[in-house]
Amino acid sequence: MIKKLVLVLLVAFACTLWAADSNDEKAAVIKVIEDAYLNGVNNIGDPEAMKKGFHEDFSLKGIRGGKLAVLTISEWIEIVTKNKAEGKYPPKLKTRFEYPMIDITGNTAVVKINNFRGDKQIFTDYLLLLKFPDGWKITDKIYIRHP
Fold first, then answer.
1. Pairing of β 54-64 and β 135-145
2. Is the domain 2-145 a CATH 3.10.450.50 member?
């Protein structure tokens, strides 16, 4: 009886630690996305934040004119830098993200983002992240633009 009670308590304790670790990882993933993408790309225009949160081999993929369009992180940083120099930051309408799905398995994560400007949803994004020794990095993005 005592052995069973000890086993149940150990399992409950392990589950509690796993849940806390899982919540910590979700918070870390969201922080990288908000620092590098939400603020770095959309609301502030911070190329240094982008360099910290996006992997150097990141690519953004979408369909334009029925064909695959690809943008590297270097190209995206150039666009943000140019827009910032032209005074396009901060934007009149801030962008906000909703996170309907965050799925983390080990050192991999998939995140679905509903991307709004004001009250209007403008994109749905799917981000892939990997956890490196120095933390989570966004490695890929696919998206759909909403009319």
1. parallel
2. yes
